[in-house]
Amino acid sequence: MTAQERLEQERRRTERRLVDLRGDYRGFVEASKDTNADDEHDPEGATIAFERSQAGALVHQAEEQLREVDAALERVAQGTYGVCAVCGEEIPPGRLEVRPTATTCVGCATSGPAASGAATRRG
C-alpha cells in the first residue's frame, strides 16, 4: 500500500469517527437543554456536562487528526512527504508506517528545542 493510499484510508476512517463523535456531542447538548439538573452535584456520578466535555475533546482531537492527514496528503502531492521538516533528511519508512502524518525524523522529534516545542506536537 502506498503512502497516499494509507493516508486516504486514514482520512476516511477519521471522517467516519468525526461524524460519530459530532453526533454524540449533539446528543449531550440536546440532553442538557431540557434539564434543570445541577450537573455539579449529580448524585449519579458522571454528569451530562462531563460527558459533553469529553465528547467535545474527542471531536477536537479527530479534527486535528484530519488536519494532519490533509497536510500529509499535501506533502505527498508536493513531493515532500517523508522529508523531515527540521533537518531535511528522509524520515525512515518504519516511522511513516507507524505514524503516517509524521513531519520529523525520530532524531529531530526527540532532541533539541524541537522536542519541547511545536515540532514535537506536529511530528
TrEMBL record:
InterPro entries: DnaK_N (IPR037187), Znf_DskA_TraR (IPR000962). Residues 79-110 form the Zinc finger DksA/TraR C4-type domain. Keywords: Metal-binding, Zinc, Zinc-finger. The keyword Metal-binding applies. A zinc finger (dksA C4-type) spans 84-108. The keyword tRNA processing does not apply. It comes from the Bacteria. PANTHER family: GENERAL STRESS PROTEIN 16O (PTHR33823:SF4), RNA POLYMERASE-BINDING TRANSCRIPTION FACTOR DKSA-RELATED (PTHR33823). This is TraR/DksA family transcriptional regulator. It comes from Nocardioides hankookensis. The lineage of its organism: Bacteria, Bacillati, Actinomycetota, Actinomycetes, Propionibacteriales.
